[in-house]
Amino acid sequence: MKREIxxxxxxxxxxxxxxxxxxxxxxxxxxxYTCREKEGDPFSQGACLGxxxxxWDMMRALGYVCNVKGVTRAQAKDVVLKYLEDHPEKRKGPxxxxxxxxxxxxxxxxxxxxxxxx
Length: 118
What we know:
- Helices cover about 65% and strands about 0% of the residues.
- It is mainly α.
- The chain has a single domain (about 1-115), classed as 10k-s Protein, Hypothetical Protein A, Chain A, CATH 1.10.890.
- Helix 2 (about 30-35) crosses helix 5, helix 3 crosses helix 4 and helix 4 crosses helix 5 (about 95-105).
- The protein is globular and about 40 Å long.
């Protein structure tokens, strides 16, 4: 059962990496706008932190191993925003893919074997 879930999620991420974020709730532009442009709006900030921490929890549940001892939600959000600022060309892709790429780069994450290319 877990293997099927891994494969299904991997297919979603891979499909989204090569196309516009159609079929996803948020793309990187939406996440960036929600997190950065609406900083004074408590609802938007909750949505921002919820999106980042939800993707983070998904990564951990799938078996990603990362160096994150002591990392807060706010720090994770800052990592994602920095990634989106440094890679505006990737913002058209799914927000969750941008979050995964940001976390992998910042925290030396290793994907579980089921999600690594063979």
